[in-house]
Structures are given as C-alpha cells and as structure tokens.
Specification:
Helices cover 35% and strands 30% of the residues. The chain has helices spanning 18-29, 53-61, 65-68, 111-123, 169-173, 230-237, 241-251, 300-320, 328-357, 361-376, 378-389, and strands at residues 10-14, 33-38, 48-52, 73-75, 77-82, 93-96, 106-110, 128-132, 135-140, 145-149, 154-157, 159-162, 178-194, 201-207, 210-217, 221-228, 259-275, 279-280, 283-285, 291-292. It is globular and about 60 Å long. Bound molecules: flavin-adenine dinucleotide (FAD).
Amino acid sequence: MSGTHNDRDAAVVVGRGPAGLTAAIALAEGGIQTLLVGLRPAKADNRTTALLADSVTALDTLGVWPLSRAKAAPLKVMRIVDDTGRLWRAPEVRFEAREIGLDAFGHNIENRDLIDAMEERARNLPGLRIVDGEVLAIKPERDHVAVDLKDGSTYRAPIAIGADGRKSICRAAADIDMDDRDYPQVAITLCARHSRPHHDTSTEFHTPNGPFTLVPLPGNRSSLVWVVAPETADDLASRDDAELSAEIERASYSILGKIEAEPARGRFPLRVATARRFADRRIALVGEAAHVIPPIGAQGLNLGLRDAATISELAIKADRQHQDIGGDEVLAHYDRLRRADVGSRSFAVDLLNRTLLSDFLPAQSMRGLGLYLIDRIGPLRRAVMREGVAPAAARPRLMRGEAL
Ligand SMILES: Cc1cc2nc3c(=O)[nH]c(=O)nc-3n(C[C@H](O)[C@H](O)[C@H](O)COP(=O)(O)OP(=O)(O)OC[C@H]3O[C@@H](n4cnc5c(N)ncnc54)[C@H](O)[C@@H]3O)c2cc1C
C-alpha cells in the first residue's frame, strides 16, 4: 500500500489499541488488505483486562492467544462482597465457573502484554500493514474514506474502522454524537504482590463509593481497580508505596495477606457514554470510540472485541459477495447487531453503579434483593453467569471459535 491507496477491497483501521488491533488482524485474516494506522499510547497502560471466555476463544482463533496465554491468569471464581456498611446489605455472592461447565470465566492479563501479543501477530500477517503515525483528518466521500496523516500522506479505502478511543476523530468525522454522563468517581489502577495465594478468585468489594476489585494475575500477584471519590483519589495518589499498600490491605480485609503495591499507577475518571449510531458515512466505530462503561463486571474491552469481530465478519462476507464493504447495508447491519449488546450492558453497569452511590434506601434494597435472588435461585444464577460471560444473542463467529 502506498501513500495514496485505492484498492476496492481494502480497509483502514484507525487506532492501535486492543480493539483496533483485533479488527485489523481479523480483517487481514479474512483476506482483506488492511492498513492499521495509529500511535502507540504515550504512557504505558498499567491496567489489566479480564478477558471473558468468548474473548479468549476469539483471540485464540486469531492466533493471538498462543502468544499471550503464559502471561494470563484464569478466573475460576468471582466473589461479590457487600462492603457498603448500610442497613440493606446484600449477601456475599460467589460464582464458580464450573457451575456453568467452564474451566474459567476468562483470563486476566496486563494490557501491555496483551497489546504486545496482538502487535506481534499483526506484524506477521502478510495482508496487514502497520503505519505508526497520527491521523489528523478523516474525510468520508461517496465511494471511499480518505485518512490524512500528520506526515502528509493520505490513505483511501472503502471502509474505515474507527478504533481511536474516547476522543475519537473518526466518530466526529462520521458526525455521530454520544449520550454521556460523568460519575463523581475515579478508578485508581495498580498491580500488587501479596503473601497469600488468590486461588484464581477475583473479589469485588462493593463500597459506598464504588467497587474495589482484586483480579488474579499469574503467581502471587493481582491487579486492583479501586473506584473512589475524586478527593480520595488525590489523597491515595499522595501516599508512598508502603502507605498505599497498607491501605489496600486494610480495604481488602487482608484476604490476600501482606500487600506490596507496584510503583506504576493509573487514574481514570469514570464515565458512561454510548454513540447514537455505531457506524455512518463509511466509518464503523469499535471499542471506546463507540462506548465507554465503568470498570464493573469486566465488560468494556470484551464489548470492544465483539465490535471488532462483528464488523470484520460483515465486511469479509460483503467482500466475498463482491458487495461494497463500507456501504450503507453493511454499516446498518453492524449498528443493529451491536446495539442490544452494548445497550444492555451499559444499562446494567450504570444501574449497579448508581445503586452503590445512592443513599436512597429503596435503591439499596433493590440491589440487595437482586443479589440475594441471584445467589439463591439456581437457574437465575446460572443465566446471570452465562449472560455475564457472553451474550446469548448476536454472538460473532470468532467468539464461537470459527475462523472468518
Ligand atoms: C480502570 C479500568 C479497568 C478496566 N478493566 C477492564 C476489564 O477488566 N475488562 C474489560 O473488558 N475492559 C476493561 N476496561 C475497559 C478497557 O480498558 C477499554 O475498553 C479498552 O482499553 C479500550 O480499548 P480501545 O482499543 O477501544 O481504545 P484505546 O486503548 O484508547 O486505543 C485507542 C488508540 O487510538 C490511538 N489514537 C487515538 N487518536 C488517534 C489519532 N488521531 N491518530 C492516531 N492514533 C490515535 C491511541 O493512541 C490509542 O492507541 C477497563 C477500563 C478502565 C478505565
């Protein structure tokens, strides 16, 4: 591909985060000549991702999982502990993957390890070219999209996949608005060593400010996502490693023994945002360009991977049928397939988060009752677990282990 590229069957993916890399790999694997353009993030991402079982299957099918498996820890048990200290407290709920016939709900992996594995896979695909650069403008035209880079080059393709994150310029170019809301919460992220084993168990403490979640990593290590009020985040940021470790040990009731926080820390203001359309004007949005949800229940990137799998499947099918891969039909189909999955998960996560923050007694009792029912009613419990791992409807082929 050269600076001005015009092949009918080519795609341009904008954004080299995990959603963009997955889309680019899937398209190239399916025989579509693909250009992946983007910047590597300026600052290392110290977050981890709990990849649910379907996402692991998709990454395995794309040849990424064999390159990352050794760095991931299985999630066999998930515990939810009500630590709100309120009148209506929910019972502790414990889900085991074997109850729904799985070895593990998924695997937790550091984002940098996941992205390294994806980049390695991407570099070895003959139909995929990676260009390191900043995109300045996306211009949708009647039969193609033009992508202008800072270095002066322009690439053209019948479809652009906008995987350029929260401040997506692809979304702006497609003239798509977001419905969004900021929460009075910040997620602090870090990894820590601990003296006791985690037994492949992730524990989510529900506190009045949001969840405090420990997720296993290989060995005696876990990642922490600690959702707090912004002023508490500032206070925690001012602590040295030893003080912060002691705070974490206290907040986790020493379930993992002595805690040793590792130096790198992240700070993410919490937000829920959903694009009003997921595609328009030859541009399809995937990952956080399309939706942002709070880090509760490990849904964000799992949704992003399903976006990438879905648009790739539709574009490859259209290409094989000699149809326009970025045409209105493909884009409208993509929007229809993704709306229910993204909408229902955003709604559930938003509701749960708001009942945690609420001082309104009926809201607290509703959450308590919900968790009580999930704990006690076997079929409901298993249905919730299955739906949490994968959507019953609109499951893309990659998530079923089928090559594109
Ligand atoms: C605290 C926290 C914990 C989380 N935990 C989980 C979890 O356990 N499980 C889960 O599924 N999800 C989780 N998520 C969500 C997950 O991290 C995100 O969904 C995911 O990182 C989004 O990936 P992305 O590829 O869409 O966007 P990004 O990772 O933001 O990638 C966008 C890329 O586009 C590039 N880019 C942007 N603009 C341009 C431009 N103009 N030119 C060139 N390049 C550009 C950027 O440099 C970047 O590389 C969590 C989120 C948070 C905040």
